[in-house]
Amino acid sequence: MNENIFGKVDQYISDLLAPEDQILKDTIKSIDEEGLPQISVTPNHGKMLQVMAILSNAKRILELGTLAGYSTIWLARALPENGQLITLEVDQHHSDVARKNIENAGLSDKVDFRVGKAMEILPQLIENNEGPFDLIFIDADKPPYTEYFEYALKLSRPGTVIICDNVIREGKVLDENTSDERVKGVQRFNKMLQQNKNVTATIIQTVGVKEHDGIAIAVVNRS
Ligand SMILES: C[S@@+](CC[C@H](N)C(=O)[O-])C[C@H]1O[C@@H](n2cnc3c(N)ncnc32)[C@H](O)[C@@H]1O
């Protein structure tokens, strides 16, 4: 099999169904210009997030890991007029870059930026009764994914969709002797997902223009 087939097909799907407009292209450009890492979701994954937001009729979205606001734009574009997205980011510079990109996208009235460690902001969201959210996208640092998910559950209602990126890590999750803290973090997370009775969940493997990985999708049970 042509080893580039996954990348080529990913590009084919993006061209068909997830073409980037100038705002998304400028957002990706800002990442290089501002010295941020190119670790945003791909166009196809951005579109998938948008489809999930529409599917779940999301009016309130929570995102962990803003970076330059690329996934934020895909998600916020699915919100209705009075919809709101809160996005958490530990790095002030990342959040500042994202703020400009969101402004450029005309979405400033829908996006609320919070800067700080997700682990510190999440309990504040609970304390301030800022939930429940209809969709939660977890895409920050990997070691505390299990704890992020537990906070996400506290900020959910029955039917809330929780999506967690990068849970397969090029298949390294199969290595039980790994010393990589990110891999260990998602291994612990995936095991928790298996045992969690509050959600119905699965993991979809992803291949394409980025390395082989996986996305966990969970829905909070209705009873
Ligand atoms: C993979 S990037 C997010 C990409 C973004 N969701 C997108 O697709 O456009 C992860 C982001 O999480 C941020 N991050 C890392 N540790 C964090 C923490 N403890 N709390 C909040 N954000 C964190 C990083 O600074 C980085 O900007």
TrEMBL record:
Gene3D superfamilies named among the record's database cross-references: Vaccinia Virus protein VP39
CDD domains in the record: AdoMet_MTases
Transmembrane segments: none
Listed InterPro entries: Cation-dep_OMT, SAM-dependent_MTases_sf, SAM_O-MeTrfase
PROSITE patterns: SAM_OMT_I
Gene Ontology terms, MF aspect: O-methyltransferase activity; S-adenosylmethionine-dependent methyltransferase activity
Keyword Mitochondrion: no
GO biological process: methylation
Keywords: Methyltransferase, S-adenosyl-L-methionine, Transferase
Protein name: Caffeoyl-CoA O-methyltransferase
Organism: Pedobacter caeni
